[in-house]
Please model this.
Amino acid sequence: DDNTLADAIRRELGRDGQVYVVYNRVKGIQNAARHIQELVPEAKISVGHGQMSERQLEDVMMEFVSGETQILIATTIIESGLDIPNVNTMIILDADRFGLSQLYQLRGRVGRSNRMAYAYLMYKKDKVLSEIAEKRLRAIREFTEFGAGFRVAMRDLELRGAGNILGVEQSGHMLSIGYELYCKLVEEAVNELRGGPAEEAPISADTEVNLLVSAFLPETYVADELTRLAMYKRISGVYDRQARLEVTDELLDRFGDLPREAENLLDVAMIHNLGSRLGIAKVVQQKDRLVFVFEEHNAFTPELFLQLLDRFGQKLTVYGGSAPRLSLFAEKGRSPAEQALELLEIMTKKAKIPA
Model:
């Protein structure tokens, strides 16, 4: 937006500062310079790019460093090595075309003094961004604190994918499975190639939870979208009462008393994680019954069924066959998520499933 662009430049010039404008195409950079000159006719502008001769570029930079010009319109040649404390506003045009680490490096060229610095990441009005470009821009907006470079590098790695470190080709599979699982798979593959002992496959499933409860973080409770997404990620890792207590304490400290939907979300997260460790494929509510469908490889044993009978009695029914399952009669007045969680916690304790 031209008004935003002009206001950002004038705000910096109003405190006797200077401005970087990044336009990363030599072809058209002079047109961009003319456009900015029209928006801010009172400013002195210079242009620098990598196709200039060494002497030309040196003259441009010396003029800018000495303060003879107030705006430097340049390509990404300013990405590293520049430390000009008087430059505390940067405008990156067509920011959706840049990589995440590149945006982070560019942003680091401002804020080199005790002044508040501003970085404007702009893209063309009404342009539909690709999913990956949206994620890059969201990440650079999210990671603003000092020392965020490692987090930016990790996010960049997840967005672009990692190379196959055991071969020459680039795989990018980490984009699908995440950094931690990728490292675990690489570790297992290396161990296998070295002839190390094969670990016994743990009981594991991706439990589908389908209960008639509202389980989410309301916008009225956690208003900021990025914060809400971060809390969803924290909640997804809740697998026992201690972890749940820690997350609950954090929610209470930051946002106040938990609404019923947030309590249900914690229950559902625990159901999913405990069910996955027990080898349960589905936890489904069917009218007045809770049904637990098991994978072929699971932790259920006849002894465990007898222990569950001691607690639930005739409310519990077991079905064998190719798709074994448990059916629990749901008590009225109690949340189905709480009842499902109670059964799974008993199973986890009695079956002694490792974390």
Observations:
- The chain has 13 helices and ten strands.
- The first strand starts at residue 18 and ends at 22.
- Strands lie at 18-22, 45-48, 71-74, 87-92, 118-121, 208-210, 280-286, 289-294, 316-319, 325-329.
